[in-house]
Amino acid sequence: MTLSDLIIQRIKREGPISFRDFMDMALYYPGLGYYTSDKEKIGKTGDFYTSPNLTPVFGEMLGKQIEEMWHILGKRKFTVVEMGAGMGLLSGDVLAYLEKNQQLIRSLNYCIVEKSPSMQNRQKKLLSDKKVNWYHSINELKDIEGCIFSNELPDAFPVHIVEMNNQLMEVFVGHEKNFIEILKLASTQLTSYLKELDVTLQSGFRTEINLDAIKWIQEVGSILKKGFIITIDYGYPSDELYQEYRNRGTLMCYYNHSVNELPFENIGKQDITSHVNFSALDHWGRKNGLELCGFTDQAHFLMGLGIDEYLKDLQEKSPVDYYKKMLPIKSLIMDMGETFKIMIQKKGIGQAELSGLKFPFRYKINS
Fold first, then answer.
1. Which residues does residue 182 pair with via DSSP β-bridges, in sequence order?
2. In whole angstroms, what is the distance from residue 66 CA to residue 292 CA?
3. In this predicted model, what pLDDT tens digit does every residue of 169-186 receive, in sequence order?
4. Over the stretch 71-82, which tens digit does the pLDDT of each residue have?
């Protein structure tokens, strides 16, 4: 039985389901969902690239930021938690950098939270020579002192889709000959989300609401005792996300390195994502004891951590290979540099000057 058949069966049994529940099944249904299947997802033979696929330099720079956080916390026992580690490339690159610091590596507890069995198996093969602990849920950890980070995680959480008519309506998924959209009155939880963020949608405006991201930042905030949270993803603060030219939302599907807006096609075989609302992560993060350190884009983050100096050293030490190695780094800065954002939050820490947040950025999060 295909995943489409299973979704159709559920609709026949329960009636129309929320788009959030449809997306959850499409991505995470055991063994058949996009992220739980054995399908190749990332890289040349997959559906999309991530920064670690281009060059290990991204992981080295991130490792440099984490090392600075270790210094701020007093150079003692330090836990790093990566949530949703993909194929494990970023973990390997970060650890390769941190291993250069023998004092840090002796005090390091590196953890990966990965609920996909197929992804966890790939990570274990790639990182077989590294000291890493795996968990299926962040709730298996507690009282973390260190850094929790993710790269392209909240964008893959299932989202509710809403549309403003005379009242806020939510998109549900039904099935006749094909999958169809059905509008129902939105729940109080969805209307409260917009009210808390002081967002007013104009008539006809369609967008996504990521309640799972709220649950996630609440869980992370409660488990972190002292330290930092780094969230790397694409998205915007509310002021930019709800501009009129985004009135059809940000939902996107990735299949064989092409982008479409057809979530009811290739079910279980294509990625479905939406842009992250960083204002929401800040707002509900504060409710759970987190403070905003800063918000920037990938280009400014890398510049703050010394990517220019890295390129100069590369040219001096490897002049023959310079252009070959420089091109993917340029892509990190130019092609992906403004698309991807970095939010850093902290807990239990006073003033903390972080190199990755050194340079100003045009989008601001209004707390």
1. 172
2. 17
3. 999 999 999 999 999 999
4. 999 999 999 999
Model pTM score: 0.92
- The DSSP secondary-structure symbol of 320 reads T
The domain spans of the chain are: 51-158+208-357
Q: Say how far apart CA 128 and CA 152 lie, in whole Å.
A: 23
Query: How many residues make up the chain in this entry?
Result: 367
**Given the structure tokens 């099935």, which residue do they identify?**
175
What are the tens digits of pLDDT across the range 188-227?
999 999 999 999 999 999 999 999 999 999 999 999 999 9
Q: What is the pLDDT of residue 323?
A: 65
Separation of alpha carbons 246 and 239, rounded Å: 11
How far is residue 101 CA from its own chain's centroid? 27
Q: In whole angstroms, how far apart are CA 321 and each of 59, 114, 234, 315? A: 20, 36, 31, 8
The set of residues, in sequence order, having a beta carbon less than 8 Å from that of 297 and lying 6+ positions away, is: 337, 338, 339, 340, 341, 342, 361, 363
Q: Which residue has the higher pLDDT, 56 or 5?
A: 5
Q: Using alpha carbons only, give the angle 201, 207, 212 rounded to the nearest 5 degrees.
A: 115
In the chain, the amino acid numbered 226 is: K
pLDDT of residue 47: 47
- CATH number 2.40.128.490 given to 51-158+208-357: no
Contact predicate 242/199, CB 8 Å? yes
Residue 320 CA, distance from chain mean position:
36
Q: Any alpha helices (H) in the chain, and if so which ranges?
A: 3-14, 19-28, 51-54, 57-72, 89-98, 102-106, 117-126, 188-196, 211-223, 238-241, 278-286, 298-304, 307-317, 322-333
Contact 76, 38 (CB under 8 A): no
Is 229 in a helix, a strand, or coil? strand
Give the integer Cα–Cα distance in Å for 367 and 255. 36
Pair of tokens at residue 149? 């980070």
- The yes-or-no verdict on residue 60 having pLDDT over 50 is yes
- 224: how many CB neighbours lie within 10 A of its CB? 28
Pairing of strands 144-151, 291-297: unpaired
In angstroms, how far is CA 78 from the centroid of its own chain? 22
Token pair recorded at residue 314: 């590369």
d(CA 69, CA 145): 11
DSSP state of 187: P
- C-alpha span between 150 and 63 (Å, rounded): 13
